[in-house]
Write a structure and sequence with these properties.
Helix content is about 20%, strand content about 35%. The strands form four sheets. The protein has an eight-stranded mixed sheet with strand order 7-22-23-21-20-17-18-19, sandwiched between helices. A seven-stranded mixed sheet has the order 10-9-8-11-12-13-14. The chain is globular and about 65 Å long. With about 425 residues, the protein is of the alpha/beta class. The chain has eight helices and 23 strands.
């Protein structure tokens, strides 16, 4: 079963080996060993499979590879929907049942690796939508003799793959992305002048967009305003591969969206910190609300636009990003809650003994100062939502001598990808 062509990157020396895969790891790759004994992490490979792996990165103690042929396929393997699935959703090769089973096992293993002690077993909520769930996507561009195209980078290479969209994106996103690409494809704009396109939509299907360009003098046709509810064009410094907002060039329409989440109206914009899978997020909010019942003082750290804190009646919202702060103030209105613009590690005075603290940090997890303050102040309860079980487990391990871990529950916010969202509840001993 041939799956991937050999790399066309002439600067890359490709080595192929037969590898047996033993399990899936946190990053999403299959785990195996090379003939020289080094651990190898293989994309496009499942437990129990024997594959021909093309090594793309070789280090002293490990290597990274991509399967080019499956010699013995797993019974859990299914045909992917997208040609570019490795770029957006590399677990399209797994049945949904197997995906959720592996994710629950990976979350459990993350906790066990840090010797986290918890009651009962790790819970799991899968949701029902495997496809077209994402309300936000980011695409790149590729140019050839046929003009300008939407594209994504091939995983493990510097080359790009032309595509029409993604099966994990809501259809409105890809329709808008195609329409914007068509506007840009007027013969005057080169792919080298463009960096990326971010599109986001509400549950009602309204779409906003943000176009990042590498040419500060680039003029984009006003027709782009007809493609969506609103958008903005940013010059983004070519010195960074990321979509950095170096300078706003032009904006059009209204870039604000709104959704009703857990019975509350929430406004956000194209770049707000906001969840991409609303139905599963609402299930997590229900769990958070149950665990927050009876709390007199609720502090929402890393508050984003305030969605989590609003769902449970938080009294303090801490957030560092100015755009998120503006939306949070709009969402919270005149409820009397305090909105504080600062980093969580600079807001330690809000971690008090009588408080219940809500955390939803970035992938790096809690700052060491935050963990130290928790151990010093010993708030009654900690409700910790995480997009990275490994750093969450590390943080919990530091806290568990003072706290009992009463619940750990995983949520499949990102079907067809290896990403896991987990909710842990810690109560003071």
């Amino acid at each position: 079963m041939a799956l991937q062509p050999k790399s066309k990157d002439s600067t890359l020396k490709v080595m192929e080996e037969t590898v047996h895969i033993t399990k899936l790891v946190h990053g999403g790759q299959g785990l195996g060993a090379l003939a020289d004994g080094r651990t190898v992490f293989v994309w496009n490979a499942l437990p129990g499979e024997t594959v021909t792996a093309s090594v793309r990165k070789s280090k002293k103690n490990y290597a990274e590879a991509i399967t080019v042929e499956v010699q013995e396929p797993s019974a859990d393997r299914v045909a992917p929907r997208d040609e570019a699935y490795l770029s957006t959703s590399p677990w399209q090769i797994l049945s949904f049942e197997a995906e959720n089973r592996h994710k629950q096992a990976i979350l459990t293993e993350a906790m066990e690796r840090e010797n986290v002690r918890y009651k009962s077993t790790v819970g799991w909520y899968a949701g029902s939508d495997e496809w077209h769930y994402r309300n936000k996507m980011e695409y790149s561009f590729f140019g050839d003799d046929d003009g300008l195209h939407m594209a994504l980078f091939h995983r493990g290479t510097h080359s790009k793959q032309i595509l029409d969209g993604s099966s994990i994106a809501r259809p409105e996103l890809d329709e808008t992305a195609r329409a914007i690409t068509a506007v840009l494809n007027d013969g005057t704009i080169r792919a080298s002048q463009l960096k990326s396109l971010v599109v986001r939509c509400s549950q009602a299907g309204e779409v906003v967009a943000s176009l990042f360009v590498k040419d500060e003098k680039l003029v984009v046709s006003s027709v782009i305003a007809e493609t969506c509810k609103g958008g903005v064009v940013y010059y983004s410094t070519p010195k960074s591969p990321a979509s950095v907002m170096t300078k706003k060039l032009v904006s059009f329409g209204d870039t604000t969206l709104s959704d009703t989440i857990a019975g509350r109206d929430i406004s956000y914009d194209v770049h707000s910190f906001f969840q991409v899978n609303i139905p599963v997020f609402e299930r997590a909010l229900n769990s958070i609300a149950e665990h927050a019942k009876g709390a007199d003082t609720l502090v929402d750290m890393y508050a984003g636009v305030g969605t989590i804190g609003m769902s449970v009646g938080a009294t303090v919202f801490v957030e560092i990003d100015a755009r998120n702060i503006a939306m949070a103030k709009q969402n919270i209105g005149d409820s009397g809650a305090e909105v504080v613009q600062t980093s969580t590690e600079m807001a330690l005075d809000f971690i008090t003994p009588e408080a219940t603290i809500l955390f939803d940090p970035p992938r790096a997890g809690l700052h060491a100062k935050v963990v130290d303050r928790i151990l010093e102040a010993t708030p009654k309860k900690i409700i910790y939502l995480s997009c990275n079980p490994s750093t969450q487990a590390r943080d919990i391990a530091r806290l568990q001598d003072a706290y009992t871990v009463t619940s750990i529950e995983g949520f499949n916010f990102f079907p067809k990808t290896p990403h896991i969202e987990s909710l842990a509840v810690l109560e003071l001993r």
